[in-house]
Design brief:
The chain is mostly beta strands and about 230 residues long. It has one domain: Immunoglobulin-like, CATH 2.60.40.1730. Helices cover about 10% and strands about 50% of the residues. The strands form 3 sheets. Strands 1, 2, 4, 7, 10, 12, 13 and 14 form an 8-stranded mixed β-sheet that branches. It has a 4-stranded antiparallel β-sheet with strand order 8-9-15-11. The radius of gyration is 20 Å and the shape is globular. One of its GO terms (molecular function) is peptide binding. InterPro entries: Aminopeptidase_N-like_N (IPR045357), Aminopeptidase_N-like_N_sf (IPR042097), Peptidase_M1 (IPR001930), Peptidase_M1_aminopeptidases (IPR050344).
């Protein structure tokens, strides 16, 4: 190794960088590494707007000191009940501001966040339904499904929406009682919330890029027809 190369390696190490590993270009700060997403989606919500409501808990590793957490987010709004906790802190960091841009949301805190593992909770937010072929899709406000490739997961949840960044997902769907929900994994539990709504809790996924998470909500009759066709085969 030449002296110039050696000097460069020591310089990068002094900055806390690994000269042998290239940072993933996500368009976000490179120091946020999601480990899991715990996502709950209530769909459809048609009383005040044609969309869905959701909440998410993001478990992530922070590798550099920062006061901002920036995530991909598009057409998600009214983010509320936000908290950030870590075993490193006796007091919860104070949220200073929320800045929503076209493709990102930036959460700024009064205190610097030091490297470590964190749980970011967004207790509730709203999203829009699409009648196109990507994002969170509806057909005649009867069938609801997702198509998140290549970078439309940000229309479902705030996340690091890049194909090389993988995390486990725990998905819960709250849907009308006359419908069924399907997802990437089997349903661990289905129970009635009230006369109008039921909740389907799916088994955790292995680490996946965000665009591979998927779910559908359909009328009971769709499932009955599908089962009947399988019997005929």
């Amino acid at each position: 190794m030449t002296s110039t190369r050696l000097a460069l390696v020591f310089f990068l190490l002094a900055l806390g960088l690994n000269p042998g590993v290239s940072a993933v270009r996500t368009g976000l700060s490179p120091h946020i590494h999601p480990l899991s997403y715990d996502l709950t989606v209530k769909i459809p919500v048609l009383e005040h707007f044609q969309g869905f409501t959701a909440s998410v808990v993001i478990h992530f590793n922070l590798t550099a000191t920062t006061s901002n957490i920036t995530l991909h987010s598009r057409n998600l709004y009214s983010l509320r009940n936000i908290s950030l906790i870590s075993s490193r802190y006796s007091l919860e960091p104070t949220l200073k501001s929320i800045r929503i841009l076209k493709d990102t949301v930036e959460l700024s805190f009064l205190e610097d966040l030091r490297p470590g593992q964190f749980l970011l909770t967004i207790g509730e937010y709203n999203g829009r339904l699409s009648n196109a072929s990507t994002g969170v899709i509806h057909r005649n406000l009867t069938l609801f499904t997702t198509h998140l490739q290549p970078h439309f997961a940000r229309e479902l949840l705030p996340c690091v929406d890049h194909p090389s960044v993988k995390a486990a997902f725990r998905l819960t769907v709250i849907h009308p009682t006359n419908t069924v929900a399907e997802s990437n994994t089997i349903a661990n539990d289905v129970f009635i919330v009230d006369p109008q709504w039921q909740k389907t809790v799916f088994a955790p996924t292995p680490p996946l890029p965000t665009y591979l998470i998927a779910f559908s909500v359909m009328p009971d009759t769709y499932k009955q027809i599908y089962s009947w066709l399988n019997v005929l085969e």
